[in-house]
Specification:
mainly alpha; three-stranded antiparallel beta sheet; 7 helices
């Protein structure tokens, strides 16, 4: 028996496996025009989902169309745009031919490494008083719209976020204290080293020598000016007449 089971082929390699749960329940979707109208509605729903990436509709149709959209994206990722049966399937389910390019060039690169379902289905409030049927929102994951589910991890008042903020503040204080200690120790080493003392003393001596030389030059210039003044006074005393 074990030998027989080991030789069973892997079905996942032959057929794409849906990543959503399929409920074993009868779907109450009857149309006046019969199965043809039902298939037409499903094609319109899949086309709208690929085009808008988020649609709002009744829950039974969204639940069934979700499976076809999942399978369509899975086949596109599996075979690519060069596989003729896949291209025929895509052309059948997408009423707008421009969406074929979006499927292979936008959605396939987005979901090629995805490990979960490609779509999300949420129950929406009833549209009272227009209808009493269950409403829902069907969307593609990674769409550019704001998320419908509140992400509680970003609430700053949650206890784990409060603890993380305090831990960040404490870590920042420790880092700042370490930086201050390193700077103070380096300054102390610079002031205590003999090379720095010698350097500062040499700088002081050179500055004093410059001051002395400047003072000597000023003194010399002042003596020269005094000698010139005396000589001019003597010459003037000889030439100027004496007035009685």
């Amino acid at each position: 028996m074990n030998h027989f089971t080991n030789q069973q082929p892997n079905i996942n390699l032959l057929v794409s496996k849906l990543r959503i749960k399929v409920r074993p329940k009868l779907r109450q979707m009857r149309y006046i025009d019969g199965p043809e109208m039902r298939l037409k509605k499903l094609r319109e729903t899949v086309t709208a989902l690929i085009k808008f990436e988020r649609i709002e509709l009744v829950y039974p149709r969204a639940d069934e169309a979700r499976g076809y959209a999942e399978r369509l994206i899975s086949e596109a990722i599996r075979h690519g745009d060069t596989h003729k049966p896949t291209m025929d399937t895509v052309s059948f389910w997408l009423n707008e031919k421009s969406l074929v390019h979006k499927l292979f060039k936008v959605l396939v690169p987005r979901y090629e490494n995805h490990q979960s379902a490609y779509t999300s289905l949420f129950k929406a409030p009833l549209m009272y008083p227009r209808t009493h049927r269950a409403c829902s929102v069907l969307e593609l994951k990674g769409n550019p719209f704001p998320p419908l589910v509140f992400d509680g991890s970003r609430n700053k008042n949650f206890i784990h976020n409060v603890l993380l903020d305090e831990a960040r503040k404490e870590f920042k204080k420790i880092q700042q204290a370490e930086i201050v200690a390193k700077v103070s120790s380096s300054e102390k080493q610079n002031t205590d080293s003999p090379t720095n003392v010698k350097k500062t003393s040499n700088e002081a001596l050179s500055k004093a020598a410059v001051d002395v030389s400047e003072g000597e030059q000023l003194l010399k210039s002042s003596t020269v000016n005094d000698e010139d003044l005396d000589s001019t006074l003597k010459i003037q005393s000889k030439t100027d007449p004496v007035i009685a």
